[in-house]
Every structure is written in structure tokens, then in C-alpha cells.
């Protein structure tokens, strides 16, 4: 049995905008396809070219698409003893970027698609992202790390635009 220790870098920005405005800023850059119809079309693609076209048609300006959105704050809001605040986890990515990384480091499948967390706190609206480069760094593959850094740049730009 092999074990790998991974130190994770968390990128965290605090927005002065409302939760809804900040979330709208994220939404503006992430494609939000109807996954129940897109997933079967991706699976049925008869060529990589067709697969690429489907993905490229589904991503937003940040080159990402949303796979899943989890309202984590719901549990807090249900408990009258808890401090109720908003918290949403967006699972987003791009299968083409993931493929390029996985060709070098198959373990990337444990980290991609990525999570963007947006939550309310006393000091504002936080947007947090654990960088792909920090996940892949221990694997020592320069090519995968280069692709991961490019992905991290895209996510950081998306977050920066959402708060500005």
C-alpha cells in the first residue's frame, strides 16, 4: 500500500458584494448546461472531435462548465440552534482539460472537476478554491503541473471577476 501526502493551497477572496451578486459573477463565467441531456450526448459522441465540440459548446467564458451545485447552507438553515448562513459548493470543470492532465497523472480524477466554495461569514462573502497545482505537485509531472497551473489561473480570474 502506497501513501502520498498532499499539501493543499487554498485561494480565498472576500467579496464586498452581496452573496447573490457574487454568485451571479461566478455564474457569468461558468457554463451551466443541462447535464441530464449533455452527459448522454457526450457518452454517445462517436469521435473525439464530436466530444470536443460538445464540451466547447457547454463551457462558459472561464472555459468551465458546472457539473453539480450543492446548497451546503441548507443544513445550517434547518437547525434553529445553528447560525444560518448561505454556503454553496460548485463542482465545475472541463473534461478536455481533465483529459490532458490525466494523460500524465491519472490520479487527477480524484481532484477534477474542481470545487469553488462560496459562503457567507461575519467578514463578508468568501470564495475559496483549492488549487489543482497543489494537488498535482507531489506527482512530479511537469506537463500535468503546467496544465494544472493554467486551470488554476482560469479559476482565479473567474473568482476575481466575480468579486470586482
Task: Describe the protein in words.
The chain is an alpha+beta fold. It is 45% helix and 23% strand. It contains 7 helices and 6 strands. A 6-stranded mixed sheet has the order 1-6-5-4-3-2. A hairpin with a 2-residue loop joins strand 5 and strand 6. Helix 1 crosses helix 7, helix 2 packs antiparallel against helix 3 and helix 5 packs antiparallel against helix 7 (142-163). The longest helix has 22 residues, at 142-163.
Summarize the structure.
This protein is α+β, with helices and mostly antiparallel strands and 164 residues long. The chain has helices at residues 19-29, 35-44, 48-58, 73-78, 95-102, 132-136, 142-163; strands at residues 10-15, 30-31, 64-71, 87-93, 114-121, 124-130. Strand 5 and strand 6 form a beta hairpin.
Brief descriptors of the model:
alpha+beta, 164 residues
Q: Structural class, from helix and strand content? A: alpha+beta
* Main β-sheet, spatial strand arrangement: 1-6-5-4-3-2
Tell me the number of helical segments per DSSP (H or I, 4 or more residues long): 7
Task: Tell me the overall shape.
Answer: globular
Let me know the largest β-sheet: 6 strands, mixed
Strand segment tally: 6
- The SSE string, one letter per element, is EHEHHEHEHEEHH
Q: Quote the distance from N terminus to C terminus.
A: 46 Å
How confident overall, as mean pLDDT?
A: 95
What Rg is obtained from the alpha carbons, in whole angstroms? 17 Å
Assess the beta-strand content as a share of residues: 15-25%
Q: What percentage of residues falls in helices of 4 or more residues?
A: 40-55%
Flag low-confidence runs: none
